[in-house]
Task: inverse folding
């Protein structure tokens, strides 16, 4: 069996993104911690967040957070700058943070819940249980979301009732002193893997930083519940590493009732911290690990066996 890997015009546009997009810059708050924000910056952020706290939303955006005092306000700033025509609620689930995360989300006035069971799966399940929207989008607390992300992600589920879940593409923000070119190469390899796995192992593609689902279907087919809950770093070299993923499990659950949809529009590409790559020892070590793991599984991806 042969699979032809082709890319749409939109996907080819993604491949030219070696530089960070302009929309992300206002949310970087370069060289600032939350405590460094001016009164004007703080009020602006709080006012924008107010627009995404609807009591009868169509969309719920859920962000798990564990010790994210230096990141969460940046993610919220990007989401609170969304240009959407829908009613939206943003939810933060504090998963036992021991830093100032809870005080920050309280001060910003964002809707939040506390989940005492440690692990991303528990935090995401808490968000799913409390979400009011018909559609749920999963976000991460160290990731930046483009202005049209919300509408582009939910559009396929609105138009086609047979689509129960969606997932998108992501890019990395390089750490200080590192060129984005190396990240760009890494992302291109992942992009090829996404196209290969789409035929027989699509649920693996959903194991990332950007996915969405029909809320009720997510609840009734098993949710984010897994046997071994991932911790937030989940470094491959660590003693607590687990292959089991709550988002991959959710993808399998969603496929029981319908289909998944890959969002290829470049305006839906999110930009995330490169710290996960750094946890694995840097971009080239992470690249080597990924190559070793997935080269052994290529036959499985292609044949489904």
Result:
């Amino acid at each position: 069996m042969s699979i032809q890997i082709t890319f749409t015009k939109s996907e080819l546009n993604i491949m030219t993104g070696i530089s960070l997009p302009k929309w992300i810059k206002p949310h970087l708050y370069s060289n600032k911690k939350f405590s460094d924000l001016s009164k004007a910056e703080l009020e602006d952020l709080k006012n924008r967040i107010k627009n995404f706290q609807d009591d009868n939303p169509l969309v719920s955006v859920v962000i798990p957070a564990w010790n994210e005092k230096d990141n969460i306000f940046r993610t919220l700033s990007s989401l609170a700058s969304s240009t959407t025509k829908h009613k939206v609620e943003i939810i933060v689930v504090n998963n036992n943070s021991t830093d100032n995360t809870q005080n920050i989300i309280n001060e910003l006035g964002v809707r939040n819940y506390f989940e005492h069971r440690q692990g991303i799966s528990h935090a995401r399940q808490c968000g799913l249980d409390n979400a009011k929207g018909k559609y749920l989008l999963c976000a991460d607390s160290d990731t930046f979301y483009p202005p049209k992300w919300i509408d582009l992600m939910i559009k396929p589920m609105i138009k086609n009732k047979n689509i129960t879940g969606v997932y998108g593409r992501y890019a990395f923000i390089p750490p200080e002193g590192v060129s984005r070119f190396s990240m760009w190469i890494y992302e291109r390899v992942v992009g090829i893997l996404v196209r290969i796995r789409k035929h027989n192992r699509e649920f693996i593609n959903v194991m990332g930083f950007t996915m969405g689902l029909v809320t009720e279907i997510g609840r009734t087919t098993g949710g984010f519940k897994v046997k071994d809950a991932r911790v937030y770093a989940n470094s491959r070299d660590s003693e607590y590493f687990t292959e089991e993923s709550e988002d991959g499990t959710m993808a399998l659950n969603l496929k029981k009732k319908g289909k998944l949809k890959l969002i290829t529009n470049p305006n839906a590409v999110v930009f995330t911290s490169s710290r996960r790559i750094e946890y694995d020892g840097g971009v080239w070590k992470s690249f080597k690990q990924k190559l070793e793991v997935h080269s052994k599984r290529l036959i499985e991806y292609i044949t489904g066996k």
